[in-house]
Amino acid sequence: MSSRRGRRYDDEPHLNYKKVIAVILVLLVIVMIIFMIKRILAKGKEAGRITSASYYALYTDNKWGIIDNTGKEVISPSYQEMIKVPNNKKDVFLCTYDINNETGEYKTKALNSKNEEIFTEYSKIEAIENVDKNNNLWYEENVLKVEKDGKYGLIDLTGKQVLPCEYENITVVAGIKNSIKVQKDGKYGLVTTEGTTVLETIYKDILGIEDDYKNGYIVIGTDGKYGVVDYLGKQLLEAKYEKVEPIYGKESYVITEAGKQKLINAAGETLVEGEYDSIKQILGYTTQGIIFKKDNKFGVMNTKKETLINNEYDDLKEAKDQIFIAKKGEKYGIINLQNEAKVDFNYKSISYDTTADLFFAEDEEFKSSIIDSSFEVKLQGIVSEINDEKGYFKIRKDNEYKYYNFKFEEKDAKDILSTNTLFLSKQDGKYGFVNNKGEVIVDYIYDDATEQNDAGYAAVKKDGKWGSIDVNGKVVIEPTYNLENNYLIDFVGKWHLGQDVNMNYYCDK
Known about the structure:
Blueprint: H1 2-11, H2 17-47, E1 55-60, E2 63-68, E3 73-79, E4 93-97, E5 107-111, E6 117-118, E7 124-131, E8 137-148, E9 151-156, E10 161-167, E11 169-172, E12 180-184, E13 187-191, E14 197-203, E15 205-208, E16 217-220, E17 226-229, E18 235-241, E19 243-244, E20 252-257, E21 260-265, E22 270-272, E23 278-282, E24 289-294, E25 297-302, E26 307-313, E27 315-320, E28 323-328, E29 331-336, E30 341-347, E31 349-353, E32 358-362, E33 368-371, E34 377-387, E35 392-397, E36 400-405, E37 410-411, H3 413-416, E38 423-427, E39 430-434, E40 440-446, E41 448-449, E42 458-462, E43 465-469, E44 475-481, E45 491-492, E46 495-497, E47 505-507
Parallel strand pairs: 1-47
Antiparallel strand pairs: 1-2, 2-3, 4-5, 5-6, 7-8, 8-9, 9-10, 11-12, 12-13, 13-14, 15-16, 16-17, 17-18, 19-20, 20-21, 21-22, 23-24, 24-25, 25-26, 27-28, 28-29, 29-30, 31-32, 32-33, 33-34, 34-35, 35-36, 36-37, 38-39, 39-40, 41-42, 42-43, 43-44, 45-46, 46-47
């Protein structure tokens, strides 16, 4: 037995110790790499966020530059005009320079985070700007308008061609995202930001319907007649009307014929026509009809031409089925289709959040009442955030910030802000910060403060001035700035958000 074992082992090859050692070394290296990655991840987790870089415009000493989300200067402030950041997750920055105010001529260039010029094959590179009905500015995040040999095209933020430079001009459908107008031979067509053609260049103009491309588009033919197409380019309403209003309705449209507005369906059949001056809104739920305006007052009429609510309101808007936000004089309330007041006319403004199924009513002192679907005031305070995606709102109540879900259940900040390392806390009238275990990291010494932002910084206020702390609670800049005129207090490093929130820039003044 033993002799057979001996012969068998004698027949097997001997170990190659050099190879064994090499394998062991490789395994050790792999283990070390894994250990290092774990340490990095643990550190990132401890820091509360493992995020990629993001970028913001910087304004200081009357010059413009770029900072990243650590507050580091990426592009030194050296430009007279604001540097545009179309997508703050991408290191593509658009600079305008050598402006001739007399001729209107200017030059542009694109830079990356290494301050290298990119996309140099084009004579001009510009962000595609748009504004909403409240005049808030935004950029299309994934495409740029470029010029070459006097013609315009589109590229993405990597420089890949989206549309060739063969158009006379490229603009946008005002107020609508992902809706790019292209012009050839004086006529307009429509493409998406991916370069997909929706409409050929055969129109005098193309307009949006309210604020969503999914509502379709109003098209104006070369003869000046109006029609409607859907967001895929399918004709919904023949282009034969004097005008089509940018009012959305389910397969119904507000058109003008012989100088009079009326509601029609896709077949051109009249649904509502009556003695009014104009139509403001198409009812979108169980009642078919319109909100109309007559003698500068608003009311409701159905498709049977019956007046359901007399024109007695200074403003009127359907919020949900048979429920309306109404205005009398300078005050807002809520009424039903029977013209019964469900919420008294005590408010400066009222808005409705469809996702939350809640009304947010604000008084003269900017204090909000949150009203549920039974028209009961459930909470009062100053609402600073409504997050439909995560299903919560943030409210300042009794000089403290609190979080609630849409069922009015109070939530701990740790549950809402799961990536944060520090959480705002209040004690004896002063603010400090604790970690997710409730341990005090920043003492209760501040008069006011904000939660950490996406970059990991929190704003702190003392003696009427604002400063910032970092992800670990370390002071970045002592409270120095008077920001009483700022709508939103926010810091990235030592830089604070400028007064014009719409411009989204940071500064130190």
